[in-house]
Write a structure and sequence with these properties.
The protein is mainly β. The chain has two helices and 42 strands. A hairpin with a 4-residue loop joins β7 and β8.
Length: 535
């Protein structure tokens, strides 16, 4: 007998995580929980794993406060670290050696800036800004660092710049305690030479200090803490004609590493944990600022999740291979970066958020892999560098949970009349991409109560046409295999569910070492109470 009820199609996760408390406005395509998962494959699956890069720790109690993938010369790759023990480390392969010691640790994350190469005979240089120490310079492939040769007079003792960048061919820096609202820039012919005393005062009566800057379409965008965003228009060849304007006096940046270039835009986090996009809406100079957090009403959730008193440690990095922006920041009750908030930009005009609490990512950066693809990398609290987003779905040899939850749906999105009706729920069918011989556990939550937990096998492939019933202990496990048009085979897996109610939600998870899942959509088979079901 054919099934005589209705089938609700639920496309899971395409709008990412929401933080709203109003269940009535949540869309079926949003998620109440999106922890250690990813959307980059076009399905909802577990986030990639991580693997240790260095087999020997630089120090079991040393936190890696910053890292950089330094390529001083074509074909030569070095890994540079800044540790909480006041040392700078360098690795030619995967073994690190200290090249600088005795540095003072500041509250702000270090900033690494590629410069040099001003003329044909000049080496590329890596500048390291730490806020309390003289700017350190690695000249080409040198195995030592040196103090910057001719800093501004204001950069003395512990009054050192918090951040730096190269803009329009010169090295810039700012945020030093001696004059925290001033931007300094070097000679164009020598990034270590600030002897001309060139500088700009940026609205000195506003905010506490400059905290970061980025070069953007010929403009220099500067952030203050806790509030203030400014633009310096340096497009005129004559510095006397440069213009400074305020973009916003309502928001600022959380840290020296909380802003990042993303394709044709800039994304940053402010001290209140709100995420913003900074967009040029007209040709050069006319800038608007908007909150991305408002898209998913994420702010209520963020306030419950992160330590707003420690956002000065925030790291942001754009991971172009997946078109994701990762923000690592201290979780609630912690002063270490125990939470990663990920903004997925893989779908045009449809940004979506997810969360990862698996790692304590003190620092984030990109490191080129053997295929020349910059891959997400993190510095830990135990002196180990980890390569992230690995395919093995293993946390360096251990399991980790990947979990999601759909909204509490009354199915009114199918027909408004269903919202007020009692429903009998009969089957749950998952469309999945097979990933291995393990289960995805799915809790069935009816009117707020978990009524049962169903196990869906994430394995099985081979047949290319038709359908068949898998032999096993559970005859309700039905697998339909459609035409195999590509290497990605999508399977339909159907399980009997029991219960009735007004609203239903599904919470899926697995946590074993190497376990994965890849879910495209749910099909919920249901009847209005009083109707008769088929099979």
């Amino acid at each position: 007998m054919a099934y005589t009820g209705q089938i609700a199609e639920i496309i899971v996760g395409t709008d990412g995580l929401t933080g709203t408390k109003n269940q009535a406005i949540i869309k079926p395509t949003q998620l109440l929980l999106a922890n250690n998962i990813t959307f980059d494959s076009g399905t909802m699956r577990k986030e990639g794993g991580k693997t240790a890069f260095n087999s020997s720790s630089i120090g079991a109690s040393v936190s890696i406060l910053g890292g950089y993938d330094w390529i001083p010369i074509a074909g030569i790759q070095r890994s540079i670290l800044y540790g909480s023990d006041g040392k700078i480390y360098r690795a030619a392969a995967s073994t690190y050696s200290a090249i600088t010691t005795g540095l003072t640790i500041a509250d702000d994350p270090p900033v690494f800036v590629e410069g040099g190469g001003e003329v044909a005979a000049s080496n590329n240089k890596l500048f390291i800004f730490t806020g309390k120490n003289v700017v350190q310079v690695i000249d080409g492939d040198s195995s030592v660092t040196a103090n910057i040769t001719t800093p501004p007079a204001d950069w003395a003792s512990t009054n050192q710049p918090v951040f730096g960048l190269v803009h329009e061919g010169t090295l810039w820096g700012g945020g030093n305690a001696s004059d925290p609202h001033r931007m300094y820039y070097s000679k164009i012919t020598d990034h270590e030479d600030f002897s001309d005393n060139n500088s700009l005062s940026i609205f000195p009566g506003e905010g506490e200090k400059l905290i970061g800057a980025l070069s953007y379409k010929g403009l220099l965008i500067c952030w203050k803490k806790p509030k203030g965003v400014y633009v310096i228009d340096t497009t005129d060849p004559a510095s006397a004609n440069w213009k400074i304007a305020r973009i916003s006096d309502a928001v600022g940046a959380a840290s020296s590493q909380s802003m990042v270039l993303v394709d044709n835009d800039i994304v940053f986090m402010d001290p209140a944990g709100v995420f913003h996009a900074l967009s040029a809406v007209l040709e050069f100079g006319n800038i608007s600022q908007k909150s991305i957090s408002d898209i998913a009403d994420l702010s209520p959730l963020i306030r419950e999740m992160i330590n707003l008193g420690s956002t000065n440690k925030t790291y942001a990095v754009y991971y172009p291979a997946k078109r994701e922006v990762h923000f690592s920041t201290p979780g609630l009750g912690s002063t270490s970066n125990t939470v990663r908030i990920v903004l997925d930009l893989s779908t045009l005009n449809k940004p979506k958020f997810r969360i990862s609490d698996r790692d304590t990512a003190i620092a984030l950066w990109l490191k080129k892999d053997s295929d020349d693809i910059p891959r997400l990398t993190m510095g830990s609290t135990n002196g180990i560098v980890y390569e992230m987003d690995t395919e093995n779905r293993s946390d360096n040899g251990s399991g980790y949970i990947g979990e999601f939850q759909t909204p509490h749906m009354d199915l009114g999105h199918l027909d408004p009349s269903l919202a007020a009706k009692l429903k009998n729920f009969d089957f749950l069918e998952l469309l999945v991409e097979p990933s291995g011989n393990w289960n995805l556990s799915v809790d069935v939550i009816i009117d707020g109560d978990t009524t049962q937990t169903i196990q869906f096998d994430m394995g099985t492939s081979g047949a290319t046409l038709g359908s068949f019933i898998l032999a096993g202990t559970d005859a309700s496990d039905v697998v339909h295999e459609g035409d195999k048009l590509s290497e990605s085979l999508i399977l339909n897996k159907k399980k009997r569910i029991l219960g009735s109610g007004s609203r239903i939600s599904f919470k899926g998870a697995n946590s074993g070492d190497g376990e994965d899942f890849s879910v495209a959509k749910f099909l919920l088979h249901f009847r209005i109470a009083g109707e008769t079901a088929g099979t």
